[in-house]
Write a structure and sequence with these properties.
The chain is of the alpha+beta class and 207 residues long. 30% of the residues lie in helices and 24% in strands. The chain has 5 helices and 9 strands. Strands 1-2-3-9-4-7 form a 6-stranded antiparallel beta sheet, with no helix packed on it. Strands 6-5-8 form a 3-stranded antiparallel beta sheet, with no helix packed on it. The chain starts with a helix and ends in an 8-residue tail after the last strand.
Amino acid sequence: MMQEGKSSDWEQERQQLRDELGQRVKSLRLGCGFTLDMAAQATGLALSTIHKIENGRVSPSYENLVRIARAYGVGMERIYSAEDAPSPTTRLTVTKAGQGQKVRTRNFEYEVLCNALTEKKIVPLVTRVERRAPLTPADLEAHEGEETLYVLSGRVELCVEHYAPVVLETGDCAYFDSTMRHGLRALSGDDTRVFWACTYVDVDKPE
């Protein structure tokens, strides 16, 4: 009976440790202004893996924690301890030109703006879009929320399922439902940048 009691106590303690670790990892992601999709691209981990870590459903390997720490620009001590975590008390934050946090993914370079505010409902980005071949259905992705983009320079092609591809010139703006599969590519060879804002939705859905 004593052994069973010890085993039960350990299971409870292990779950508590998972939950606390998950909350710290989630807090760090929100502090960076990352959606789950952006975090997956930045870390190289599956979106479902990050989701499970944040919700205390798995015990992440050390290698995965290193990937997360590097992608979020923090030391491993911030993963293991919340003592140095900033208190999200501010309701106003400003990012000076060129001083946002840079995140590089396969087809985009994001500059995450105003990431000092951790509980914002909108994620603002300045994104450099790369020129590539016409998008195929496999290149499109969907997620919860809504998005708007405004072309700062160059020309882009926006593909949204159920609609014909749309070419956007400098100064053009588009708004769409992110639950429809979508993708973006640059059409011009020069520096193509867009201001991109998406609503932040983090819903714990059953898999």
